[in-house]
Every structure is written in C-alpha cells, then in structure tokens.
C-alpha cells in the first residue's frame, strides 16, 4: 500500500520533472567496520544478517543541549559513534514517513508518544527485544513493543504568582473552565501533550463530558499559543494568568533566567485529575536499519540507570525505570493521573482531534 | 523596448532550457499534487470545507495583501525620498534601509515579544512583516529611480504640479514594474511565512499545514492546504503580470535632488527610519535584554561558530549561483517574448515561493531518495532546495533588467555581424549584470535565514547559523543562542548593504 502510493507519486514527479544530472555524489561518510559477533537478543527477528559497525544515525526530536552530553557518554562507554539529526519531533516523523524503508536513521528519539504511534502504524518500527521493553513500567511504554518510553512529563498548570494566589488555583480540569478564568487561560491545542490531556479526560470521564469540557474552554475565550514554551513566556511576563503546559518547561526556564526571575509557578491539580496526566517521550528502532545492532545498544542505553538519572538531574523529568528516584519537589508519579489507554494510539487521538476541531481549536 | 509579439518566434533552445528550468522548480508542486491526490475528491472537499480552513485562508490573504500593498506604498515613498530629496548622510540612510532584510522574521518577532510581552494578532504581524519586507520594494525602486531621469518631474513641477502629484504622474509609471515586482515578492514571502505568525499568534494557512503534520501526521491534508496557498499565489502572480505594463524609461543623465523645508525633512526622515527601527533596532534590543538576563552565556565555541558561518556563507553563495542559472533562461524568455507558453512558464516560476519550507523540504526528501538516493542529505540536495525555494527572488529582477536593455543596441550588434549569443554576451549581459547581481544577493540573504528545509535536508551533523540558532532557542537557551543570532544578522547584512548600492541597469556607456 505504502510502496504503491510511493510508486505512483514518483511516476508523477518523474513525468513533470527530471533528475539533475552531473552532480558528483559526495563521499560516503559511514565508516565501514567489519561486523562484530552478534549479541544474544533480537537476532532471531531480523531477516538481514545483523551487524555492528560501531556507527548509528539517530533522529532526535529532543534538543541537542539535552541529548548530546548523554550520547557522548554512550560513545565513550561503547565506542559506538552516533550521528544525530536534530529537528522538531513532528517534522522528523514526517521526514521518516517520507523516507519509508530508505531511511538512513536507525533510532528515532521522540518528544511525544503520538509521533511514535504514527511511525508504528506505518509499520516502520521494528519490535524491540524483551530485555529492553521489560525495563520500563508497562503503563508508560508501547503495548506492542514497537517503541519504549524513556521519560515522563506531567501536565501542570503554570500560574502568574503576582496575579493569582494559591487559594484561587483550580483543583481540577473542570475548575479551569470556570467563569473566573474567562480569557485568562493559555493553551496550545495543536500540541501533542495538550491533546493527550484531552484524551485522558475522554477516557476518564467519557465522551460527552470531554465534549462539554472543550466547549466550556472555548466559551471561556482561551489564549491560543503555538507551543508550551510560548505559554510559559506569557505567564512569566504577566500576560496570561494561567497556562496549561508540561512541568519541565518551568525548570528549563528557571535554569535560563534564574529562580528570582520566575514570576510563573507550577501547580498540580488534585491526584488523579486528567489535567495532571503524565505523557512520555520515547524511542524506537526503524526497520530500515534494523540489522544494525548498535541501534539496540543505543536504545538500551536510554533506559539504563545512568541515562534515567541523567534525565532526572538535567530535565527534571520522571524516570520510567522502577527504582530510580523522581526529581525532588514533584508529586510522586503514582499520585498523578495515569489513564488506562495507549498514549500512542492514533485512533483515540483522532477522536480527541475531532472534538477539538468541532470547536475550532485546531484546524 | 516593446516585446516581440507574434512575428519573431523565440529560439527553440531558449524555450527548451526555460521549460527545463520550470520542470526543476516545479518538483514541490508536482509532489503536492501527488500527495493531495492520495485523498478522494470527497475527502479533499471535506478538508477544504472545514470552517477553519476558510478562516485561515481569509487571514492569510488579508495579511498578505495588507503587507504587500503597504510595502509597495511605503517602499516607493522611501525610495523616492532617498533618491530625490537632499538629505545629510543619504548614502548611509540607504544602507540602513536595507538592513531589515538581514533579520529573520522569527528573530524579529521574538525580539519584539521580549520588548513588549503579549503582542499578538493581526496588527503586530502586519506591522512587523511590513517592516522586514519593505526593502524588497525600497531597493529595486531606489535602483530604478537612480537610473531614471528626474527631468520629466521637473517639467511637471514647472507646469504647476505639486511634488507628490508630479512624482505620481511622471515617475511612478516608470518605477511601477520594479515596485509591483517587489510587492509580489513581499506577498509570496508573507504567504509562506510561519515563524513570525506563529510567534505573534496570528493563525494563517501555514499554521494549518504545521498542525496537519504535528497533530495528525497527515501529509495529504497538509498537501491540500499547501495547494491552497499555491492557488492564492497563482491568482496574484497573474494579477501582477497584468499590472506590469511596459513604459519607456528616460535614462538619467544627472540626478538632481531637491531641498525641502525642515518640518517636511523630519517627516521624510521618520518615514525612512520606520522600517529599520521596527524591524531591526527594537527586536535586536529585545534580544539584547534577554541576553543580559541569561544564565546560559557560556564560553562561545568559536570553532563551531566559525564552521556554521562557513557552511551558511558557502551554501548561500552556491544557492545564489544555482538559482540565477535556473532563472536566466526564464528571465530572458519573459523579457523579450510574449506568448501564452512564455506566460505560463513565467507564472509557474513564481509559485514555489508560496510553498512553506517544510513542504519543499519533504518534497525533496521524497524526490532525492527516489531519483538520486546517494545525494540524499548531502549539500548538493540542500543547495538545490534553496535554489528551488528562492529562484523567484532572482527571476523578477533578472527579467526587468534584461527588459531595460534596448533591443536597438542588440540590433546594432547583430548588424555588425555578431551572432545572437555573442550579441547577448557582449551587449545584454554586461548591461543587465547589476540586475542579476541584485537577484543573486536576494537569494543569498534569504538562504542564510532559511530554517525548515535546512533541518530536513542538511547532511546529518552539519549546521548552519539558522539551525544552531534554532537548536538553542528551542531549548530556551537564549544566552547561548545570542552569538549565532548576532553573526547571522551580521553576515546577512553584508549582501543587504551591497544590494542598497546596486543600480538596476548599468549605464549604457559605449
């Protein structure tokens, strides 16, 4: 199906266009190292003879300043060189969908589960071996082993501490759409994390309630933003009293601006409320390069104790491997809402988008 | 200077090479049609009939029209002031008026948000986009004015017309093609901009396209919206062709500038200063404020900065050359001949500029993997993408500068025994060269600032100044981003300032 569409598209492109000839291909950069003996796991699933050439290409939807220091440790420990392409998660997902089986990437590190689900649906991910998937709490990883959760991020309410007192803060998602917050709530409805919050609401409280919540939000004249970081900027500047964001944006801004410049504060709604749902960032291995054993080592490394502790210390995200301590000062993972649904399930995401679209929050 | 109509047919090789050029730049359009046609007619209708689509399309058209019309009026006024009014530091003012070109629109809007938090919606988007795009009109019109005699205007003045009416009735018709062509570039720029409108929260079709990728990973739906942009662009390009009209230009022998009274001089200076203040000074000031408060000022990795600068300058120089090569046959054809096929080719040439960078990037991911997989994610495909995206910036100026070379001169060369190609090389090329230079510089400046296609197509691990800037700002590290922002603006300012000094047509000295 996919390859048919591709062939059709190609023939159309070729009819109207022509290849630019005469440009010499640049030298291949991939170092050719003879295959090392195959490690125990995963080899039974791959058709091509697995090999380890100490070289991996990873596409990263998470930023360089966060990922690169960690990967440098990986390279130091294993001798495996990693070339990383950094871009936005959704752009990279679109790129991998476009590349299909010709993707040069072995690993995709994604900011959200939706993008991982899209690639899994397109059949582009290889199934991960059990010794990797078993490391992570099953509530925070794929149900079919196509991708693995790496870190958790909680949805929170960011508030302007100079405009809102603690006693006024909403204790639930429903209070957020109360009349007292009319015109005062910043949201990024196109953002994956906002949509999974609405999905959680749907799953926990039912379709009709979710529809009503979204309609209440829209009647309340929300402030629409393109992304979470812009919401936090606006809250911190005193422009918007409340904003629905992910918790780690606050810590990142604090690191940049200094604690004394943080007018914005974080607030978690009551335990189990969908407004405090936990989303995951995760990774998967692309089928196109699934014979590359180095990729398995890299993904295993992302859920190693060392990497999990690194994420806790640098991004204040929740570790997903049991036994690693959560960041200090945050509510325990168990106290936050964990909806009983697959975060990467695009069909349930589509139902959420239908509601958001109905009220004009997304296109 | 009339075009050849009907009688003389364009040479076959010229038509063929122009057709090839169009085939090359149409790759993104063909890709869009192919992706879009994966949906059934019913599904396409369903996407297009969503109420939000109409709203986004209206927002897009309204913003693009407002920005481009204002840019034409303001740019022509500023160019008139800079070339016709005696001002102290006139040359410096001209240089300064080119500077907004060097500031990427996403940077300008971020700087403004630091200065005035909470800016959002139509008015700020309109004002800021106008400020950063007005040099697309100011510079070509100023160049045309410097090559145009003010004698006619003087005559009109002695006959009793006021300065503005004299300008409007005598000089405007002569600079109109340059002004309208600049306005077209402004329109297309606004149509495809995402960074600024996203930052200032004014929802246009590029938002819809971004959402289609980000929320539902739906490339077909994104393609339908991008095609909607192309259709809007098509209408405007055709309208511009109608508004162009040919006017014989009286070549300047000397340029006289005029004294005006002090209060009017203040008004004139304020007008000239407006775009650089709004588009450069305030946003860079805002960035400076953020920098002072930043905790991520680390030791700047100079070798990394130098590498990114080298890649940026190299890639944009190559892109400028390739874009010019693609534009030349089209420009030569459109300048001298007028028939339906020539019109179709030229119109098609402008359309890729209306397509957002991410879409062009994805189309070339697909195309290069299918046709030249070995070149995927190499500089070759990246430079090619830049050329496809920005060739339209070279097309208009190249065409109008070839147009302004008198066919009489070429006839003389032909009578003296030169072959057509030789006559072109010895007469047209040297006279039109400054116009080609303007086009190439515009391509180079825009390439330096390009982000979405660069992120998709650059070789893995290679960075430009724009991608370095992006990776730091997307992590919220404005302190660490500052050196890259500063170098990007500085590097892009150099071609911008060169641009301000180029005449549109070389003097016909023989």
Keywords summarizing the entry:
heterodimer, A: 363 residues, alpha/beta, D-Maltodextrin-Binding Protein, domain 2, 2 domains, ten-stranded mixed β-sheet, 38% helix, 15% strand, disordered N terminus, B: 510 residues, mainly alpha, MetI-like fold, 23 helices, globular
Report on the structure:
The complex is a heterodimer of chains A (363) and B (510). The longest helix of chain A is centred in the N-terminal third of the chain and has 15 residues. In chain A, strand 1, helix 2 and strand 2 form a beta-alpha-beta unit. In chain A, strands 1, 2, 3, 4, 5, 6, 7, 8, 9 and 10 form a ten-stranded mixed β-sheet that branches. In chain A, helix 7 crosses helix 13. Chain A starts with a helix and ends in a 5-residue tail after the last helix. Chain A has two domains: 151 residues, Periplasmic binding protein-like II (D-Maltodextrin-Binding Protein, domain 2, 3-Layer(aba) Sandwich); 139 residues, Periplasmic binding protein-like II (D-Maltodextrin-Binding Protein, domain 2, 3-Layer(aba) Sandwich), CATH 3.40.190. Chain A is globular and about 65 Å long. Chain A has 13 helices and ten strands. Chain A is α/β, with parallel strands linked by helices and 363 residues long. Chain B has 510 residues and is an all-alpha fold. Chain B has a single domain, classed as MetI-like (MetI-like fold), CATH 1.10.3720.10. Helices cover 76% and strands 0% of the residues of chain B. Chain B has 23 helices and no strands. Classes of the chains: A alpha/beta (363), B mainly alpha (510). Chains A and B meet through helix 1, helix 2, strand 2, helix 3 and helix 4 of A and helix 1, helix 2, helix 4, helix 12 and helix 17 of B.
């Amino acid at each position: 199906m996919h390859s048919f569409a591709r062939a059709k598209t190609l023939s159309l492109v070729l009819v109207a266009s022509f290849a630019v000839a005469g440009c010499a291909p640049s030298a291949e950069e991939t170092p050719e190292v003879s295959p090392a003996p195959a490690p125990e796991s995963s080899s039974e699933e791959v058709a091509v003879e697995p090999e380890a050439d100490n070289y991996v290409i990873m596409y990263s939807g998470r930023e360089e300043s966060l990922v690169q220091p960690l990967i440098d440790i990986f390279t130091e420990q294993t001798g495996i060189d990693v070339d990383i392409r950094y871009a936005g998660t959704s752009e990279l997902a679109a790129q991998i969908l476009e590349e299909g089986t010709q993707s040069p990437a072995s690993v995709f590190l994604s900011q959200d589960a939706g993008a991982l689900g899209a690639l899994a649906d397109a059949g582009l991910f290889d199934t991960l071996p059990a010794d990797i998937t078993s490391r992570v709490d099953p509530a925070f990883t794929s149900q079919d082993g196509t991708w693995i959760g790496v870190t958790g991020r909680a949805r929170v309410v960011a508030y302007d501490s100079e405009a809102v007192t603690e006693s006024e803060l909403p204790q639930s998602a429903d209070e957020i759409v109360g009349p007292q917050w009319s015109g005062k709530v910043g949201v990024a409805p196109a953002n994956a994390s906002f949509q999974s919050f609405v999905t959680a609401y749907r799953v926990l409280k039912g379709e009709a309630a979710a529809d009503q919540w979204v309609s209440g939000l829209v009647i309340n004249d929300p402030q629409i933003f393109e992304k979470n970081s812009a919401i936090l900027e606006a809250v911190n500047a005193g422009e918007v009293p409340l904003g629905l964001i992910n918790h780690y944006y606050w810590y990142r801004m604090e690191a940049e601006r200094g604690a004394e410049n943080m007018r914005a504060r974080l607030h978690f709604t009551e335990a189990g409320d969908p407004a405090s749902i936990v989303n995951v960032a995760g990774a998967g291995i692309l089928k196109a390069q699934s014979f590359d054993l180095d990729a398995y080592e890299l993904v295993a490394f992302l859920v190693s104790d060392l990497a999990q502790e690194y994420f806790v210390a640098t991004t204040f995200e929740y570790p997903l491997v049991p036994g690693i301590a959560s960041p200090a000062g945050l509510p325990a993972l168990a106290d936050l809402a964990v909806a009983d649904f697959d975060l990467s399930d695009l069909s349930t995401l589509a139902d959420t988008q239908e509601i958001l679209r109905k009220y004009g929050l997304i296109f | 200077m009339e075009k050849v109509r009907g009688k003389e047919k364009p040479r076959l090789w010229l038509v063929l090479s122009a057709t090839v050029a169009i085939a090359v730049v149409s790759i993104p359009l063909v890709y869009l049609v192919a992706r879009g046609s994966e949906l059934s007619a019913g599904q396409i209708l369903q996407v297009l009939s969503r109420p939000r689509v109409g709203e986004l399309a209206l927002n897009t058209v309204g913003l693009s029209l407002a920005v481009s019309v204002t840019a034409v009026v303001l740019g022509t006024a500023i160019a008139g002031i800079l070339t016709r009014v005696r001002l102290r530091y006139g040359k410096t003012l001209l240089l300064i008026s080119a500077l907004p070109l060097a500031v990427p629109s996403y940077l300008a809007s971020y700087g403004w948000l630091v200065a005035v938090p909470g800016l959002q919606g139509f008015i700020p988007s309109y004002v800021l986009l106008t400020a950063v795009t007005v040099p697309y009109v100011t510079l070509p019109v100023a160049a045309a004015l410097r090559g145009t005699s003010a004698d006619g205007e003087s005559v009109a003045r002695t006959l009793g017309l006021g300065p503005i009416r004299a300008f409007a009735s005598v000089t405007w018709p002569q600079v109109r093609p340059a002004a309208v062509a600049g306005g077209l570039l402004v329109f297309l720029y606004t149509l495809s901009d995402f960074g600024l409108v996203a930052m200032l929260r004014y929802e246009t079709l590029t938002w819809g396209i971004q959402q289609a990728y980000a929320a539902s990973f739906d490339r077909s739906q994104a393609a339908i919206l991008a095609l909607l942009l192309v259709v809007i662009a098509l209408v405007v390009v055709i309208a511009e062709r109608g508004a162009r009209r040919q006017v014989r230009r009286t070549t300047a022998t000397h340029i006289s500038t005029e004294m005006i009274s002090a209060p009017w001089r203040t008004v004139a200076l304020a007008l000239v200063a407006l775009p650089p203040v709004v588009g450069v000074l305030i946003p860079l000031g805002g960035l400076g404020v953020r920098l002072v408060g930043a905790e991520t000022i680390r030791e700047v990795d100079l070798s990394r900065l130098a590498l990114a600068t080298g890649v940026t300058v190299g890639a944009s120089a190559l892109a400028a050359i390739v874009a010019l090569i693609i534009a030349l046959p089209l420009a030569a054809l459109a300048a001298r001949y007028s028939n339906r096929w020539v019109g179709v080719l030229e119109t098609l040439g402008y359309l890729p500029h209306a397509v957002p960078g991410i879409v062009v990037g994805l189309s070339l991911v697909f195309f290069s993997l299918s046709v030249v997989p070995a070149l995927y994610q190499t500089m070759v495909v990246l430079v090619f993408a830049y050329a496809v995206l920005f060739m339209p910036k070279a097309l208009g100026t190249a065409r109008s500068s070839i147009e302004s070379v008198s066919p009489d001169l070429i006839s003389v060369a032909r009578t003296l025994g030169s072959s057509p190609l030789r006559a072109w090389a010895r007469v047209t090329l040297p006279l039109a060269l400054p116009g080609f230079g303007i086009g190439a510089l515009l391509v180079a400046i825009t390439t330096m600032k390009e982000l979405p296609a660069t992120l998709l197509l650059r070789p893995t691990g290679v960075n430009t100044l724009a991608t370095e800037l992006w990776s730091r700002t997307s992590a919220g590290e404005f302190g660490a981003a500052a050196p890259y922002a500063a170098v990007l603006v500085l590097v892009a300012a150099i071609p911008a300032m060169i641009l301000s000094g180029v005449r549109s047509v070389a003097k016909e000295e023989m």
